[in-house]
Amino acid sequence: MMKLKFAPALAVLFVLAACSSEQPIAPVPEAQKVVPEASALPVSETGFSQNAEVQRFIRQQAGLGVMGEGQLQQFFAQSVYKGNIVNIMNRPGTSRPWYEFRSGNAGAGKINGGRRFYQQYRQVLDQVAREYGVPAEVLVAIVGIETNYGSNMGSFRLADSLPTLAFGYPRRGEFFQQELHEFLLMAKEEGRDPFSFIGSYAGAMGMPQFIPSSYRKWAVDYDGDGQRNIWGSVPDVAASVANYLKAHGWQRGGKVMVPVSMVPTPELLALIEEKTALNKTVGELRRMGVTPLEEVADHEKAVLFRLETAPGQYDYYIGLNNFFAVWQYNHSRLYVSAVREIANGVGGGKL
Ligand SMILES: [Ca+2]
Q1: What residues are labeled active site?
Q2: Burial class (CB in 10 A: 0-12, 13-18, 19+), 12
Q3: Where along the sequence do coiled-coil regions lie (predicted)?
Q4: Alpha-carbon distance 42 to 167, whole Å?
Q5: How far is the CA of 235 from the centre of ligand 1 (A)?
Q6: How confident is the model over 219-274, as pLDDT tens digits?
């Protein structure tokens, strides 16, 4: 603390020493005292406070009433640029086949962990499931795939990771600036120090890995202690995930996906390659040669896809409404299939 107290005095001495002793020192205009000199160089070189884009962001956020300009300057002065996060983001993505993705994300260990988690929190999970209409095993599966039931929630301060991505990763700068905006509002609304929030390198928080915009919209204080604690309260976590899925169209009692038999014609393979959306009805798919292997109504909307079960071997499926609801959580067919695999392993059902 003493060190901090003396630092400004030392800085003044340094400024005095750096100036020519013959010239009187001009008073520093108020604006320059508050706003550090801004540079167009990247934040990796300037740090946040000296970066022109950051200063623009500060003025904009202050104008929106998110925080006072002084508070924002202080926030960025304390925020630490994390070059390793940018390195992680720049790693080339690998698209793994289902048989690898499944063993990594929905194997026996994950399913057994899910059974234990369900056992431990059964009462509240069942209560949330009844209330929101989303099966408990789906809530368990999402927490399992996201953070291995809360054991791997990330260790980055969001106050470092989000500014790093917002201003040091131009490819998605706009997205992360928006999330940073949401994050600052969230810290204010929750009455918490922004530097107290911990999450993944990409700004996802807590057991369900909500990004700030999702937290603000969908997180729920289910245990009623006045805080939406998605880091430590399983009731809050369960209700937050259920709330998210319900809001994204989950229908009580509906299936996730149904296996089909089909001959992979060029027409059907082209359909599989389309962007994930419920773009056909089951009836339309039947007329194209797709035969569901379980009962499903013709009017239901569906997306046709396949999973590679061994090199060059595929199982074909239609994803239904609830497939698409889980896909909203993470835009990956493999992810949704893994959630369903864990859920079926935990719940013994056929989702
Ligand atoms: Ca709570």
Answers
A1: 146
A2: exposed
A3: none
A4: 8
A5: 7
A6: 999 999 999 999 999 999 999 999 999 999 999 999 999 999 999 999 999 999 99
